[in-house]
Amino acid sequence: MISTKGRYALRVMVDLAQRDMDGYVPLDEIANRQGISKKYLEIILKTLVAKKLLKGMRGKNGGYRLTRAPKEYTVGEILELTEGTLASVACLRADAEPCGRRQECSTLPMWVRFDRMVHNFFYGITLADLVEEENGGSMGQEK
Amino acid sequence: MISTKGRYALRVMVDLAQRDMDGYVPLDEIANRQGISKKYLEIILKTLVAKKLLKGMRGKNGGYRLTRAPKEYTVGEILELTEGTLASVACLRADAEPCGRRQECSTLPMWVRFDRMVHNFFYGITLADLVEEENGGSMGQEK
DNA sequence: CCTCTAACCTTGTATTATAATAGGTTTATT
DNA sequence: AATAAACCTATTATAATACAAGGTTAGAGG
Questions:
Q1: The CATH number of the domain where A64 resides is what?
Q2: At A54, which helix (H) or strand (E)?
Q3: Cβ count within 10 A of residue B26
Q4: Is residue A5 within 8 angstroms of chain B, CB to CB?
Q5: A67 is in which domain, residue-wise?
Q6: Residues of B with CB below 8 A from A141's CB?
Q7: Contact A89 B1 (CB under 8 A)
Q8: Residue closest to D18 C1′ by Cα
Q9: Does residue A117 form part of some domain?
Q10: Is A62 inside any structural domain?
């Protein structure tokens, strides 16, 4: 399950993508609009700033803004960053200790296929897609 | 992330599917073969027995066995049962309290699509598929 | 009938993650 | 100088995960 961390991060990114690029949007405003705890959001945004997905500006007229165009962000990178990993099982995490049952595991091939599918799904969607979708665009080609 | 509960359950089910249908396989044997804590497995198998995916038999020559043919089990039902839900986000769980932001949520449509994809993936694989896969069968049509 | 085996049942517990809250410090702007 | 807002450090309540311990019940075989 994707936790609130990743989901909130995504919603904030879409929120920022919707209010243009010029000017900073203060956390207070985002938190109120999205109905998310201000203090909790602060923690989440700190990560996004650290990883350069957002730029933070202090003082009056300060706030946060995107560092790239919406279509240059994939949902995958945002989730992976905030959730720590997108891996569906522990043994497929990047930091996993090698599993001795790799060769004989009856389920590993399935998990690998699943992981690939998930990765392709999330890395195939950009922030711009989500903004459009909300504006009534029929983003996708269900498959 | 799928926890050990679901992953172990799956591995046990495949294990049982491999040792034919006649006779019961004791937990001790499964736990040793799979390298899983016996006591923890007990808890997991209890659920599977309660939901009639397995039959348990006490006493000498007792153990566990499948109640159906391997191809009559989907991976989806096994995971959903042991994990509690397959939903990728809290607001899509069956027991979720209705979210007031449903209409305006910029990410919900994406989560719905993702959920559908995950559901189709896991409900499209049977125990029999996993057994074959392990025996060198090239189960699938990568897409 | 007695013993053994193995499922079943109840309880406890260490560790970790989640989802925050509280309060102080620094840096821009007016 | 005052104010706004990001930034930083620490704490915490709740829940889930992944077990472990020990006792109870029900079949099978001698």
A1: 1.10.10.10
A2: strand A54-57
A3: 14
A4: no
A5: 1-86+126-143
A6: none
A7: yes
A8: B40
A9: no
A10: yes
Let me know if residue A94 belongs to a domain: no
Contact B75/B10 with Cβ under 8 angstroms?
Answer: yes
Domains in chain B: how many in total? 1
Backbone φ and ψ for A58, nearest 5 degrees, come out as -85, 175
Per-residue pLDDT of B14-62, as tens digits, reads: 999 998 778 999 999 999 999 999 999 999 999 999 999 999 999 999 9
Angle A80-A84-A87 from CA coordinates, rounded to 5°: 70
Kindly state whether A133 is in contact with chain B, defined as any CB-CB distance less than 8 angstroms: yes
Say yes or no: A142 contacts chain B, CB-CB below 8 A: yes
Q: Which residues of B touch A109 (CB under 8 A)?
A: 133, 139
Q: Which of residues 75-104 of B touch strand C (CB under 7 A)?
A: 90
* pTM of the entire predicted model: 0.92
In total, chain B counts a number of residues equal to 143
In angstroms, the separation between the Cα of residue B11 and the nearest Cα of chain A is: 7
Q: Domain for residue A2, yes or no?
A: yes
Copy the structure tokens of residue A77.
């990178």
| Residue whose entry in the numeric block shows the structure tokens 């029999």 | B128
